[in-house]
Amino acid sequence: MSANLGNASIIDCRVMDIRFPFPVLGPGSDASNAHTTYSNPYVVVRDSDGMEGIGIGFTLGKGNEHVCSAVQELFPLIQGCRLAEVFFDFRHFWRRLANPPQSRWLGPYCGSHYMAAGALANAVFDLAAKRAGVPLWQLLAALSPEETVRLIDFRYVSHLLDEAEAQSMVAGLVDTRPQREKRLREHGMACYFTTWIGTEPASLVQQVADVIATKGIKHFKIKVGLDVQSDAIRLAALRGEFGDTIDLYVDANQVWSPHQAVEWIGQLASFDIRWIEEPTAPDSIDGHRFIRERLQQLGIDVVTGENCQNSHVAAQFIAAGAVDRFQIDACRVLGPAENILIMLIAKKYGVPICPHAGGSGLDELVPHLQAWNHIVLDAGSDKTITEHVALCSRHFEHPSKVRMGRLQLPEAPGYLSGLKPEAIQEHRFPDGDAWSG
User: Fold this and answer.
1) Which candidate in 66, 130, 221, 223 is catalytic?
2) What residue ranges do the domains of the chain occupy?
């Protein structure tokens, strides 16, 4: 590992509540959430040299209040520590951040405190990459196998993947990393675009046509789950206009029982959909396996993960055969290290990783994680596809980029370059221009 993180210590943290308002049944809407407010607990950590790292969480509005408060409660656990100490022994700090005294009882390894720990971890990894002068994916891909596994707490998954096995997996592919990085630089990563539950058929067709024309994307996810006839009409409109030139995916956002999911998707199967996402409760492993076993004959994948609260639940989904693909989320779990663990387990069991990016800032974070997956684990396939929504990307200093239907590798140093100053001024809650008028 060539990066020198120096002797700087983490000394300060400030937290802002950032919210982007959308109309009812507008952008971000789905069968469970008709009215969304894309929102980020926005964390800035500063080191003793004055450098700053930016991390975010993600909620749909009022959740910010809980996560922002929890960040302030957790920060003393890393305050005064050397950045290099935290980064290169992250498994130790993982346990400290994941187990805040007393408040962990509210939800061990899940909930607002765990998401706050994830936002802090995102900021620490951003700071480390900025000090190294490289994008985070590049910093992580340059770690040795030994350094990689020191990021990870294997405690709850060691029966499925232990440290020695993980290190061996990573070590076996070290020599061929440069070829995979070169391929990603030249060709990018497959991605798909998401539409929203309130979009009428004619507007949906126009939106898809615009995305094809401007970005070259040919993969589209459609929100379903309110009314099967309405779902069928919208899917029929897309197939009528575009035929088999596009791939279609559907997302129910947890609204069905397992039996209802099988019945509903059976009625939509003729539209040649590639997956059903979050068909039932997001922590129901048996429910997803029940649905998967019955949809296999239709050739429709079952996927989930954006609301999966930690790596040991994710590991159970993957190892139990409950999903065909798994969707990591950059802000749901405890930072890049825990997502690396999930990707390692997915690699072992042959489950493709398809990151979730339906939220402000997620489009800018997940390309780093997917790039690591491709370069270090050689885990790319025609089923490895990353969500690209970009509803709020214009507000960030270095927004994610798509060229000819392919998501490009991030180039700026760090994990998240941060919001533009004018975006903070407008969307800071409750006194930003978007909220105070």
Assistant:
1) 223
2) 10-142, 174-427
pLDDT in tens, 365-412: 999 999 999 999 999 899 999 999 999 999 999 999 999 999 999 999
Query: How far is the CA of 410 from the CAs of 209, 303, 372, 414, in angstroms?
Result: 26, 26, 12, 9
Whole-prediction pTM: 0.97
Total Cβ atoms within 10 A of residue 214? 9
CA distance 406 to 289: 31
Residue bearing tokens 């800018």: 364
Report DSSP letters for 79-146, one per residue: TT-BHHHHHHTHHHHHHHHH--TTGGGG-TT-HHHHHHHHHHHHHHHHHHHHHHTSBHHHHHHTS-HH
CB 398 within 8 A of CB 411: yes
Reading the block at residue 14, the tokens are: 């400030």
Note the CATH architecture for domain 10-142: 2-Layer Sandwich (3.30)
Per DSSP bridges, beta strands 37-47 and 247-251 are: unpaired
Tell me whether residue 356 is one of the annotated catalytic residues.
yes
Q: Is residue 223 annotated as part of the catalytic site, yes or no?
A: yes
- CATH superfamily membership of 174-427: Enolase-like C-terminal domain (3.20.20.120)
Q: Comparing C-alpha atoms, which of 18, 36, 1 is closest to residue 424?
A: 18
Paired tokens of 119: 């936002």
Q: Which of 66, 219, 347, 356 is catalytic?
A: 356
